[in-house]
Amino acid sequence: MHFFMSIPNLENWMWAEACEILDRANRIQRQFFRPAVINVGQVTWEPPIDVYETNIDFKILIALPGVVPEQLKIKLENGHLRVNGYRPLPAETDSLIRRLEIPYGRFERQIELACEAVEIDTYEFVNGCLIISLRKL
Question: SS3 of 6, please?
Fold first, then answer.
């Protein structure tokens, strides 16, 4: 049995280990920030985002599974985009929850932009994601 790995295999193993550690950390974070019933009015989680920039605009993708678009508030001020809303618990409240990894309750995400001179061009809800286009002025 070899105790030494080749460099490519070692890099693959290290990358896989790093991804596994990040995945465990994300699961722990989601469990820790699971809101209690008494915290219904407070912000309890931040949705994950992707931000893309071109010469003319920013595209922001915000993962919001189970959120109704009418529950969203989008505000742009002082070089920050703020998105907040609410994700309710699933309708089957009388069932026994075996696992709950998707956060629920009030959420807010504030995104600092590299450019303050922007305006909201378009936004749409596609496949559980809010896609916002911010045009540079």
Answer: coil
Q: Which CATH architecture has domain 33-136?
A: Sandwich (2.60)
- This prediction's pTM: 0.68
User: How large is the average pLDDT for residues 87-99?
Assistant: 76
Top pLDDT among 24 and 35 is at 24
Separation of alpha carbons 114 and 101, rounded Å:
32
pLDDT in tens, 68-92: 999 899 999 888 999 999 998 876 6
Round to whole Å and give the CA distance between 99 and 132.
Answer: 31
Question: Would you report the helix, strand and coil content of the chain in percent, each value rounded to 5?
Answer: 25, 40, 40
| In the chain, domain spans | 33-136
Mapped onto helix, strand or coil, the DSSP state of residue 29 is helix
Nearest to 132 by CA among 51, 68, 67, 77: 51
How far apart CA 1 and CA 125 sit, in angstroms, is 53
Instruction: Give the position of tokens 């998707």.
Output: 102
pLDDT at 41: 67
Dihedral angle over CA of 102, 35, 32, 17, nearest 10: 10
